[in-house]
Model the fold of this input.
Amino acid sequence: MRDKPFGAALLDVAHQALTQEIAPALKGQQRYVALMVANAISIVAREIEQADKVAKAWDRALARVEREGEGNLEVSASRLVTAIRSGEHDWGHRQLDWLWSRQDTRRRITRRLMPERPRR
Done:
């Protein structure tokens, strides 16, 4: 018996079929629409794959706000929205300075931003 494809895996198969089998046979507007649909499928597949990470991040953020709350999820969610809007969860200059101070990070960023110089 075949394994059932689930969620993101099924969407990946659909994306491959669209981009490798269907889109190459199309032209103009039809090709554009097929590739746009394939792109949307990829986005949804990534969202499905990352759903657990997003849920955990949401739980951590709510827990941080709930420490000050009455344990009411709606109140906590409202406080979280207020905290996000006020910039409490934004990265500030201190965090960016710390990140930049790490040599491995600086090296990776520089490598990506600076084009390789041709050797003579």
Remarks:
- The two ends are 61 Å apart (CA to CA).
